[in-house]
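ERR on first pass: missing label on line 2. Operator R.T. fixed the label and resubmitted. Corrected input:
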Amino acid sequence: MPLHTELAGNTVRLSGEATLYDGKALKAALEPLLANPEQVSVNLGGLQEIDLAGIQILLSFVTTRGDAPTRLVAAGEPTRRRFQTCGLGEWLEPATADSAGTANGQGE
Amino acid sequence: MMPTSSNPAKRQAVQFLVFKVCEAILGIEIDRVSQISRNVTITGVYSAPVHVKGVTNLRGQIVTVLDLASRLGLAAAGIAHGQPMIVASAAGESVGLLVDELDDIVKVESKAIMPVPRHLPRALGSMAWGVFTSSENLVIALDVDRVVG
Amino acid sequence: MADKELLALFVQDSTELLRNLEQDILRLEDSSDDTDLLGDIFRYTHTLKGNAGIVGQGLISDFAHEMEDLLDKLRKREISVSTQMVSTLLSSVDLLESMVRACTGGAFPEQQAEACDRLSQAIQRLAQGEEQPISAEAPASSPEKARERPAEPRGGEGNILQISIAFGAGALQSGFDPTVLIEELSYLGRLESVEVDLSRLPPFKELEPGQVYLSWSLRLNCPSGAQPVRDLLSFIPPEHAVDVKVLSALTEEPSTVPSHASSPEPAVSPPAQVLPTNPIQAVAGPSVRGEPPGSSELGPVAAGAAPGPAPTGIPSSPPADGPAPASAWSSPPALESIRVPVSVLDRLMELAGEMVLTRNQLIQSVATGDEALVERACQRVDALTGDLQDAVMATRMQPIRVVFDKFRRTVRDLATRQGKQIRLLADDRGVELDTTVIEAISAPMAHLVRNAVDHGIEFPEKRLEAGKPAVGTIWLRARHEAGQVIVEVKDDGTGLDADKIRAHAVGLGLLKPSRSASLSSAEIHSLLFKPGFSTASQVTDLSGRGVGLDVVHTNLAAIGASIRIDSSPGAGCVFQVTLPLTLAIMSAILVQVEGERFAIPQANIKELIRVRAQDLGTQVIRVGGVDVTWVRGELVSLVRLSDLLGIRSPTFVHPRSGERLPNKRRNIADRRGPDATAPRTDPDRRRMGDRRHSRASALNMVVLATGDCTFALLVDSLLDSVEIVVKPFGRHLRDCQVYAGATVLGDGHVALILDVMGMSRMAFVAEKTATAAAHELGMKSEVPQEEDKLPVVLMAGAKGEVFCLPLHQVRRVLKVDGSDIRTVGRRRVLQRGREVIPMFTVDQVADTVPLPPEQQRFALVFRFGERDMALLCSQVMDIVELEDDLDRFTYRQPGISGSLYYGETQVLVVDPKELVLGVFPHWGDDLEDAGDSRDRPSVLVVDDSAFFLDHIAAMMEEAGYQVSRAADGSQALGLLDSAASPFDLILTDIEMPVMDGFDFVTRLRRDPRFQDIPVIAITTLTGRENLLRARDAGIDAFSVKLDREHVLERCRYYLEHGRETPTEPRELQ
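pass 2 clean. output:
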């Protein structure tokens, strides 16, 4: 299933796949929130599949926003596993935390 | 206007092999020429594309031979026996070009090469990249890659 | 000889010896009784032992000695061969190989010594006749030992691996995702640390989604050793750097490894293994290029040294269904020396000798200023240089058997490891290729073979369940065909599951779901070759069968080779690789046409035939618009080479005068027998003699076969049989279908090589032959036609519906491949080369069961106005004759003219014209426009069958004629008599009541008024006798019922030229 995105306030919700083929769409979906100084959340709950392309876009999104807080939340099992195996587990919000959050992880 | 091949503008002077096809006097950069032959035995290839005269055996290699007159849209008097053939290299392979007469090798200053005049017949004009004078003749510099196609 | 040289020689010799030894040992399993084989094996080992002693390689010598003891007992039949023994022997060969290699560099490392001990013990035990239970066979030589050191890395390597991953920027685009790789690695053991380098990650706006910016460094604790990692990494091409460093051995308790890592396969122990040697130096290490299978080293993969595809490892390789990245690999060892047949060397010597002579000539002639001599000498030098080049090229030819042999071991090891039973059959037909081509295809082929074992052949139980023999078979075949070399890997395993492939492709976004239903199986299979197909994450359901094929495809394309797959689910797969002919030497026959010589690959030639001119009328006939001849009782299309070459005005050499004259004969079969109407006393004719009897007037035919298609090629003369080196064409001529390249003949001239496959396609030979055969089937040649029987082509629609088209309306039959179908607006068309044929199904206008796309397998081509159209069906059932009692009422609907019975089955008769008009009503206008403004010529059509009369009349009217009809000969005569203006043309049937065609025309010709009207007989009768009778009666041409094209063409011809009068000297050829 290709990428599907919903923007609601400061949260963008992703579902479907975030892979090489969805790169452009993913960037376009995150773009509006790039400069938003408030806290922004990317809800990964609906993602069934993610690959390096998707991961890089998300990471770059977080880093480019710099001091402005960004959370990658609600990652499902496949997404979480991929992040974790690749040493990027800290970039995701812990599974239980769902409320207004902590500062984003900056990698290792 | 500049040739897609080597960029002579960068160099001070260019060496050309000058030759005749029908009434036209033409030139090709010498560093694109690997060989010049005469009395070439050409084997015709039926149902070959239009400008292909045939093939010839060049040191064991099968080289396609193009009829330059036909390629340049010049009125041909037919292929005479013993026509010289210029072997040029383009796109990684050698291709033979049949001409009427070989002339000389001349060295031309890059700045002496002028843009292609407009009145040239279309096919010829589209494959030329400049003109220069040599021994009071106007020589048309051909772009080898476009000629070979 | 210096020590070093001696040693180098030893290494070279022994490497070859060991290769032979390995092949022989493999054969031992199937022929354990073969005394000669046992003897050979013993002798190899003995020789090796001796040689090793001479160069002071004590370890090798000692080990070989152990083997010798065992082998001696074997050949004396004191003990017998067992699978286990073979495995041990093979491992011993592996060990010897690495020991031999170590001779020229590096010390003999500890691990190898261990392996040496272990194997020696195994050998000794076997020699004592001790059997070991297979399951306990382990590198650790006893079960207890295995338990003591559970985590002992097999072969003594460390099991902590330091892996750094830095893929190239374009990796994702090529289908390689490092995160997938890491996840895969995580299943092989325990990832102890993962460090990711984000430094190159660009700011959001600059980020290109397709590029790779991250790299990693990780530590993996892999209790089963490095082999599984090695296997996994072997799939990655060298431009994506993956570095693996094995840290020193640790004996840790294996942690709970995810269930993935344990082998799903039954625990068959591996053959005793030998793994190499030095702990790998990551970057600094020497490039370990291409270890032969059986002993791979883990080295800096970036240097292109990925381990060879043949594993020597352990059952715990990654699950086959895992998302293994697609494959690439190292090349086989760069050859330092090569074997050359003595005959080739002799030729080189010969040429060198001639060169010397010619050089002397040249020098002399220049000195004396003899221009003519100079020129001759120059030409000779020119020719010789070409020959020399060819001969040198010939030295590089290697038999493909070399590649096939390598795989025996691979298959055996893999099969044993996985618990499958597989035999490998190879048929190489002596095919030879240039070494570079051999090198280039080794790796892709290895992958295909591996794939067949891993994912093609099922486990014995499953095979038995499916009714197959427990032992699976893999075939490796090579052959010359149509001037190319075809290499096949075939298996009788599970085959490809089209649905799964489809689903996966849709899931990957490579295919739109709407389109996926209409793909033909060929299209589906070709999906496997699309980049990224097998490497995206989660290739679970595909059973790994498609893994790596996209890279195989890319690698092959790089050398100009192509690959295709054929598969039937459950029955197996065939991978067919077609190699470019660039450097092959092949046998050919030279033929001559229009004074030019052409070469035809011997492989395609079935037969050479000569037909005497006087036999022509009977041996070659025109049927259904096609010239055909009989070859051993089979009807075969006859094609003129000059036609295929596009020679407009073919010439021929008059056998007496020797002149080259234009050949006016249009049809090959159009030869006149003695003309009954010519005055027999024509003095000119007698003087000319009958040219037909001249030897040179015979027809020379080459019967060619390509795949399933046979046809006869007409040439001017047949020349020699030659061995030629194929030279490819350059860009301009590459696309000519007729040629496969060119070659230089002995006299220095160029001969073009004909591409038989291309020719058959150009001449539509397959369809024409089928059509001609169909027509022949539809005719009863010797027995008079039964009244009112209509030959039809029966075809199957959907759900058991049966349709038919009258045979005379079917111009040809095509097999439809999904990839040929295009949709243009509302129209679906068949694209064949440059032809675009609109396609129709009956359900488009009539109330019949719609034919689903996957059942649209055959197209019957018919004529509509000036164009060809196609009617689709699922199957062409048969060509039969039905009682011509058309029921025009019961099933009448648009597109269906009625129904007939075939036995008990109801057959709906399709009216193709109505069908087309039903879909595109405005096309009817096109039909009407076909006529032109000239005076419409008048034609008299005579036929007793109302059905045919209607059809022919309609056809002629459409073509712009004025038509009058008569139901038999006497009616026709009556019409002729009373006609206001004379007829231009007569079309008549033969079999008619009251007065038949022969009678009718004979009478017609007696009347001076009607002597000049051309008469074309349209009939189902053929056969040689009838043809002759027709000519005697004065019939000008014959057309089988009924070839529209041919009839109209003949009509035009006769309208223009009138009847051919016998007074012209006729050119018989």
